[in-house]
Amino acid sequence: MTLLFTPQFLLAMPGGSEWILILLVVLLFFGGKKIPDLMRGIGKGVKEFNDAKESMKKDIDTGANSKSTTAPPEKAEPLKGT
Question: Does any domain span residue 70?
Answer without folding.
Answer: no
